[in-house]
Amino acid sequence: MKLFRFTLLLLLFTFTATISAQSIIKTTLEPNQLPKPPSNWTKKNQLGFDISEIAFVNWSAGGTSSISGLFKGEFSRTYIKGNHKWFNELIIKYGLNKQDGTELRKTDDAVQLNSTYGFRRDTTSNWYYSAKYNFNTQFTNGYNYPNKDIAISKPFAPAYIFLGAGAENSNKAKNRTFYFSPITLKTTLVLDQYLANQGAFGVKKAVYAPDPLDPNAQILVEEGQKVKAEFGILLTAYMKNEIFKNIFYENRLTLYTDYLNRFGNVDVDYDTRLDLVVNAYVKANIGIHLVYDDDIKTKKDVVDPVTGNTSQVNDGPRAQLRQVLGVGLVYAFQ
After folding, report:
1. DSSP character for 7?
2. CB–CB of 108/139 below 8 Å?
3. What residues does 278 pair with on adjacent strands?
4. Are 273 and 285 contacting, i.e. CB atoms less than 8 angstroms apart?
């Protein structure tokens, strides 16, 4: 029995030594096993899920139970070599809310893709000659709750595309970036004919004519356009600072005005967020998102007093505000 144990240990030692020797020889002989040279690419992958919940059971003061969830993803790829810099970023958000006695409702929905290429004269300068591409849309239909019969927005209705060239100041040490472009093409897509016929999001609406057979009806003469092109000035800014230990303040600002259509009428998109980091996996955040676009008209429901039918009409442009407070999990990976 002792001989068997000794033989087994000897075989195990021989096998381990052989594997180690092979690893040493393999590492020595094959260049591809040597440490890889530093890459010109840096990447960031981060997934997050925020949740808030309130429940009432026999609560004498009253209240409505609800639960909300928000899924977030941020992915970036940056290529830096010499005087060249290429930054790519994908941001996705989708949130839902369920209250007792009501249907499931959407609270957030965004898909944003950013890409910026820059060239600078020397490696000490923070100024780049830049070209920027930006794309924004959503995943699912949006509604003017509680009305879920008529969608007021859909995937690619709208979708916004910005494409232009200008100058960018990027300071990595201070984690801030400013971009100015005097030549930016803005394209608004409304790839849903019903919304396009209404002239939603600034596209040219459909043309109707009275029906000679029915004075209460109209005949569609020309369908609404699904694409609107503008040419103007774009200014973007990004900044993120640690204002206190484990408390980060992040700002994103986009300003745009069209040369040809009411120059000086500025579209504003401002997103600010305060992150309170508990540890590598738990984070609380407070955010405010402010949007103003003269082409986006708010909707309101109007009930016909005769027929009782509900329809939606434009109520003019309004400042849009969304406030978020959440606590959730964050997972970063390579």
Report:
1. H
2. no
3. none
4. yes
Of 306 and 195, the structure prediction assigns the larger pLDDT to 195
Instruction: Using the predicted structure, report yes or no on whether residue 187 has a pLDDT greater than 80.
Output: yes
C-alpha closest to that of 327 among 279, 294, 293, 292: 279
The DSSP bridge partners found for residue 127 are 169
Our measurement of the distance from residue 305's CA atom to the centroid of its chain's CA atoms, rounded to an integer in Å, reads: 41
pTM of structure: 0.82
Q: One-letter amino acid identity for 241?
A: N
Cα 326 from chain centroid?
A: 17
Give the separation between CA 193 and CA 239, rounded to whole angstroms.
39
Helix/strand/coil for 37: coil
User: Is pLDDT at 61 greater than 80 in this prediction?
Assistant: no
Most confident listed range (29-43, 159-173, 212-226): 159-173
Q: How far is CA 9 from CA 3, 17, 21, in A?
A: 10, 12, 18
Q: Are 163 and 130 in contact (CB under 8 A)?
A: no
Rounded distance, CA 78 to CA 84, Å? Answer: 11
Interacting residues of 72 by C-beta distance below 8 A, sequence separation 6+:
47, 48, 49, 50, 91, 92, 93
Residue 227 dihedral angles phi and psi, to the nearest 5°:
-135, 135
Q: Report percent pLDDT > 90 for the chain.
A: 65
Tally the C-alpha atoms within 13 A of residue 321's C-alpha that lie toward its C-beta.
3
SS3 154: strand
What would you measure as the largest C-alpha separation in the chain, in angstroms? 109
> Residues 157, 225: contact at Cβ < 8 Å?
no
The helix/strand/coil state of 179 is: strand
List beta partners, residue 149: none
| Angle CA 211–303–204, to nearest 5 | 50
The helices-and-strands tally (H runs, E runs) of the chain is 2, 18
Handedness of CA 25, 26, 31, 33 (dihedral sign): negative
Alpha-carbon distance 66 to 56, whole Å?
A: 9
